[in-house]
Every structure is written in C-alpha cells, then in structure tokens.
Amino acid sequence: MAQPLKEMINAASVGVLADGVAAAWAPFPRDRFVSEAAAGLEGLELKDRVRHAARALDAALALPFPRAAEVLRDAAARTRLDMWSGWPATEYVGLRGLGHLDEAMATLAALTPYATGEFAVRPYLDRHRDDALKIMYGWAESDDEHVRRLASEGSRPRLPWGRGCAG
Description:
Layout: H1 11-24, H2 30-38, H3 46-60, H4 65-78, H5 83-96, H6 101-111, H7 122-127, H8 129-139, H9 145-154
C-alpha cells in the first residue's frame, strides 16, 4: 500500500531543503530547522504540514525578506529540491514576501521547477493584481515549461486549494 501524500512532508524532505539553505547561507541553523519542521507533523494533513514547515523556515531563516529570497534562490541552484522539499519554501514566499513583489515573484519563478508556486502566487494577485499579472505575462513567454505552468495555473482562481482572487 502506498503511503499517503501528506507523509511525503517529513524529516527527510525538510532535511533536503535545510541542506540547500545551509549551503547558500552558512549561519542557517540546519538541525534546529529540521527538528522544528518535523515536530508535530503526525496529526496534520498535507497543506497543514506544508504551512508548518514554512513557519519553521520563517523562524530559522531570520533575515529580511529580500535577503532570505536571495538565499532561497541560491539554495534551489545548489540542492536537488523536489516537490516535497521545495513546497515549504514556496509557501514561505507566499507568507513572507507580500511587501516585496519583485523579489518574491523572482523566487517563486526560481523554485517552481522543483515545487510549484501556484498556491503561493495567489496572495500576490490579491494584493498586487496589476503588477503581479505583468510579471506573470512575462512568465507565460518563458522558455521554462514550469514557469509557464506557474503563470497559467497560478492565475486560475478556482484551482483546487486555490483562493479566489479579488477583483
């Protein structure tokens, strides 16, 4: 019997993310992050596990958002992230970057080949609709199929788990 998808967010998956972040920013408290991100997952469903790990990342990546976004982009280049290790990073961007549209959108574009940012982009459409859409129009022309998917799927307000966009 296959394991439930929610169990793919676990100590091993957050460990992969932690390795990338530690490689990109030496002061990152890798072990503390893994411990906090993995603690208490047992009783949580999939999206709650992702949010839990994102909150642990927020606590451990104690940098102003523009610098944290740079670290995450660098981490993605240094580590082989996948859906399960990268999803908490995209969720983190959705939670923390709303005041930094350009840095946040660049980070979502850098992370989406590993873990979709389609859920994390929704708050930017809510808060910065016109400017976010301009960026997403550019994504629609990207050579990277994942970035093109982020443009199309991220702008679908009725996507499962998606929040409707204002407007």
